[in-house]
Amino acid sequence: MRVRPLTWLILAVAATAAVTATALALPGGGASAPDHRTAAAARPAGKAQPDARDVVLAVHGGAGTALDRDKTTPEREKAYRDGLAEALGAGQKVLDKGGSSVDAVQRAVMKLEDNPLFNAGKGAVFTADAGHELDASIMRGSDLRAGAVAGVKSLRNPVQGARAVMDKSPHVLLAGEGADDFGARHGLRTVTQDYYWTQARWDALMAAKKAAKGDKKAAASPAALADAQSKGTVGAVAVDERRDLAAATSTGGLTNKLPGRVGDSPLVGAGTYADNGSVAASATGAGEVFIRGAATSTIARLMEFKGAGVAKAAYEVIVKRLPALGGDGGVIALTPDGVFDAPHSSPGMLHGYLTRSGKVVTKIFPDESPANS
């Protein structure tokens, strides 16, 4: 039977629509993706209001299952609060002297990298082969310059490597041995792998390997719980007296990750973003989902093209969009005029901020910073 041209066109459009619908419902040809409307309806109602105003610097120490106020000792609480406060203090010294926001976020992140409580630098988690591979990035909002390193194994402070890539190379991202060599050639301090080792992270690796083999006790062990409470990343955002924004992020990745795995932290637009026209943002959480959702750049674009405020844009991405892709986490986001928000879809997110007047606020328990808010 001969098909008329118009009839053929209608059939082709219908077939294309059917294929497209199938592709959207079955990413990668696998099982059906979560229904976004169902996922959104299942999440608790939250807010889209800024956490604070007149903020000049903020840091985070990772998103995760959250510290339990009833089970956290006073000593452990103090250690986390002091760690966040010390990072804020390091950045504050830069800003108080009229320094740049880029220098401020680098100093703050370096302080967190040197603190074994956090999953970056000294406290980095182990890969599946019991090694350490670290990632970091930094971005300047005034000209969108950025630098990053991925899979480094010998830089004491990966964020310094990211800064060196930004300032001393024509590139944005260097990986592996090339990144380590580049840092060493530019005078950055190097270490051997045992520098990153901590007992807590080793215990977490052992628990993860047992859990992967079906050991339910290992999955619920104190070591696994402690690892889950801060599961990814440290970061900082800042605005200086010239109203220039900057952001930086650093991580050891995921416990028991495959060697060579790279998450969102060194990827501009996923884990880190800064643009004077919108926002400085540093993310933490399920890295693969933050990559797929282009998390931090999407926040910036919602602000730029839709005119959304920072809280509304960050809430849209972190609470509404990313969980529907299969992962949770959080972000710290700061505007040039000091409006700050820290939404997270994970149960908890360790973070803190500094106001222009010098007030320091740290939040480590869920009741201080409820999820989906």
Description:
- The structure is a single chain.
- This protein has 373 residues and is an alpha+beta fold.
- The chain has helices at 5-25, 36-42, 74-96, 101-113, 158-168, 176-185, 199-212, 216-219, 222-229, 287-292, 295-306, 310-321; strands at 55-64, 134-140, 146-152, 173-175, 233-239, 245-251, 272-274, 280-285, 329-334, 340-341, 348-355, 360-363.
- The model is unreliable at 1-44 (pLDDT under 50).
Give the helices and strands, then pairings.
Blueprint: H1 5-25, H2 36-42, E1 55-64, H3 74-96, H4 101-113, E2 134-140, E3 146-152, H5 158-168, E4 173-175, H6 176-185, H7 199-212, H8 216-219, H9 222-229, E5 233-239, E6 245-251, E7 272-274, E8 280-285, H10 287-292, H11 295-306, H12 310-321, E9 329-334, E10 340-341, E11 348-355, E12 360-363
Parallel strand pairs: 3-4
Antiparallel strand pairs: 1-5, 1-11, 2-3, 2-6, 5-6, 7-8, 8-9, 9-10, 11-12
Helix pairs in contact: 3-4, 4-5, 5-6, 7-9, 11-12
For the termini, the CA-CA separation is 61 Å
**Principal-axes shape call:** globular
Q: Averaging pLDDT over every residue, what do you get?
A: 87
How are the strands of the biggest sheet laid out side by side? 4-3-2-6-5-1-11-12
Order of helices and strands: HHEHHEEHEHHHHEEEEHHHEEEE
Low-pLDDT windows of residues: 1-44
Strand tally is 12
Query: Portion of residues in helices?
Result: 25-40%
What characterizes the major β-sheet?
8 strands, mixed
Q: Radius of gyration from the CA trace?
A: 21 Å
Tell me the number of helical segments per DSSP (H or I, 4 or more residues long): 12
The quaternary structure here is single chain
